Amino acid sequence: MTVTLAQAINRALTDAMAEDDRVLVFGEDVGRLGGVFRVTDGLQSRFGEQRCFDTPLAESGIIGTAIGLAIYGYRPVAEMQFDGFTYPAFEQLVSHLAKLRNRSRGTLTLPVTVRIPYGGGIGAVEHHSESPESYWVHTAGLTVVSPGTPDDGYAMVREAIASDDPVIVMEPKRRYWMKADIELPVTAPPAHEALVRREGTDVTIVCYGPMVRTALDAAEAAEEEGWSLEVLDLRSLSPMDTEAIVASVQRTGRAIVVHEAGRSLGLGAEVAARVQEAAFYHLEAPVLRATGFDTPYPPAKLEGYWLPDVDRILDLVERSLAY
Amino acid sequence: MVDDLQRAGSGQLDPTSLLPPAEPVHLLDPDGTLHEDPDHPVGLDDAALLELHRTMIITRRVDREAINLQRQGQLGVYASCLGQEAAQVASAWALQDEDWIFPSYRELGAAIVRDVDPADLLHLFRGTWLSDHDPYEHRFALLSIPIGTQALHATGFAMGARFDDNPIVTVVYFGDGGTSEGDPHEAMTFAGVMRAPVVFFVQNNQYAISVPLAKQTAAPTLAHKAIGYGLPGYRCDGNDPLATYAVTRRAVERARAGHGPALIEALTYRMEAHTTSDDPSRYRSDEELEAAALTDPIVRLRNHLRNRDLLDDATERRFEEEAAERAQAVRDAIYDAPHGDPLELFDHVYVAPRADLAAQRDELRAELARREDDDGGAA
Fold first, then answer.
1. Of the candidates B134, B155, B350, which has its C-beta nearest A68's C-beta?
2. For chain A, which terminal residue's Cβ has fewer other Cβ atoms within 10 angstroms, N or C?
3. Chain A contact for B276, CB < 8 A?
4. Is pLDDT of B4 > 90?
5. ipTM > 0.90?
6. pLDDT band at A248 (very low <50, low <70, confident <90, very high)
């Protein structure tokens, strides 16, 4: 059966709501409209307006009330409509959602899932293409995952809702229409385990979310050059599966990290730090980064120059192999 | 109610019923004279009035002890509620046991009503831990420092109660400064639309640190802000325990009956500095403070009880002694209280164990062992 990422997440929400009546889905336009990306399509008509509801247009309000609902005993699944509109909720996410359990010495449990469509590549207007994942990864108390395939979309959202910790699900919006031939429900390894999506021997490509597909395309193209790339999908950004990264780099001796987010203090910096700490003598070349630039996200007509793509990855592969 | 919601935003709702009264509700004069008001019945018997008085006395004494502890270097900082005892104690008194309180960081009086051990709250200010009471046991959420942010937690909690047909109400405390923040605005917006049984209780103590109310808002009163959210705005003399009780009770029971949220502005005065780190002599005069002292909430209820021969010397002495004992217990718990195990820092960050944190915990453990060895070597 052909399933898109958006459909897989929709099914995950449906199944979670059917199994547990404490699961609530809410956000801007998630009800009657079914979400601007239709990820919540049909939830309100099936489960009623009390379990899937539209909120006023106020992101801090969405996260702040999710916290109150969780303290009460619900399992809220809150949608932030777009990456660039999470910032009004920054304080609730960082100062409360992430910290209340620690502040309460373990007395409060906040099983809140926050879904954020993120990243570029869809020709959107400003504020609709950002990659703010480093903010969440840098915040102790949050778990951050990003599916790169439809089956992970299903499995990770189910896992996030089942988790007693707050989980941010960074959904690669340009891949919402990506298809896979799978039967839902699917199971997958737990999100904290990175997965080798393609085995290779020359260079490890570390990626996640929207860049998994791009990295696989690069690996395909690299074959023509006679280069064998291993594609490692991190899946979970926090925690990060250091062991899997190190194991792969120990095999290949080279690593390139790929993400849309700007380079400085992006996930690539953390991956590079961990690799040189744990696999220094295995490295044949410095860890390189194929990323967005340290500029604001560009206007839509220029995003093709800004986003990492197959060519940018292959250029770095060449540089890495030249060491 | 559904009709009201459908008409909301259409200009068809009559807004005048949401407007606060011209004068704040006031029942008790400073000399203790009671002016009964049929719209705001108090309904507290003599024993309850004495209890209210006793709780305010305990609050003031423990508050003073916390200031003393700070002066002696035992607390890093402390935010006193001196002068706001009626606003806090009498409003919390208006709740049922099952109702939840979402405090800011200044709500010692409300905490004492909920039987939270003040020492458990003072650990936050001492720096031994960030909180130490069970919010579920006391229906009293953690102290919240980022201004007004807890208004959304109270609203979400109340939404949950409504979804569950659970007849509880939440009350959230914030200040005049808090009304300028975005989160109370979003909270009142949500609460209005969702008909959440939450009461927004604003203690207007006239100052946000040094900034007076006139520089905080151009609204006619803070209670007038309610109309923008479709909430009724109430106003009471927050140094009048009986008016505060009656107005809060009315708003709480209205919410419990399904008629939705409300905003209360309680007019009070912060007699102490913003916190022990503040120097109010830079922004307010002695004359202003002396005038405010004449409206003291505890003196007022005492005068009333004395006028009615409900409070004799012996009872008064008993209250003072009990308050001193409570203060001593707080002192005993806080003075030189050791900090906890540094390795506990890793224990409550996540429910699910994480390998990266476990590794960092081991790093700290090794550091601690090295320090112990070094200390041992030096001795």
1. B155
2. N
3. no
4. no
5. yes
6. very high
Predicted pLDDT of residue B379: 47
Put simply, whether A190 touches B (Cβ < 8 Å) is: no
pLDDT for residue B10: 73
Contact A64 B349 (CB under 8 A): no
**A-contacting residues of B 20-49, CB under 8 Å?**
none
For A240-261, give the DSSP string.
--HHHHHHHHHHHS-EEEEEEE
Q: Which two tokens stand for residue A38?
A: 């239709």
Under 8 Å CB-to-CB from B84, ≥6 apart: which residues? B106, B109, B203, B205, B238, B268, B269, B270, B297
pLDDT at position B374: 85
Collapsing DSSP to helix, strand or coil, B227 comes out as: helix
**Is B2-334 a domain of CATH 3.20.20.210?**
no
Whether B157 and A69 lie within 8 Å, measured CB to CB: yes
* Residue among B120, B152, B357 with most chain A CBs within 10 A, to mutate: B152
Q: Which of A57, A104, A241 is the best substitution to test chain B (most B C-beta atoms within 10 A)?
A: A104
DSSP string, B104-125: -S--HHHHHHTT--HHHHHHHH
Q: How many CB atoms lie within 10 A of CB A22?
A: 18
Looking at CA atoms only, how far is residue B181 from chain A in angstroms? 12
pLDDT digits (tens, 9 = 90+) for B164-183: 999 999 999 999 999 999 99
Domain borders along chain B are 2-334, 342-378
CB contact under 8 A, A66 and B193: no
The span from the first CA to the last CA of chain A, in angstroms, equals: 45
- Residues of B tagged active-site: 270, 274, 283
Which tokens hold the place of B113? 């009503």
Domains of chain A, earliest start first: 2-181 (3.40.50.970), 195-322 (3.40.50.920)
d(C-alpha A231, C-alpha A215), whole Å: 7
Residue A282 annotated to the active site: no
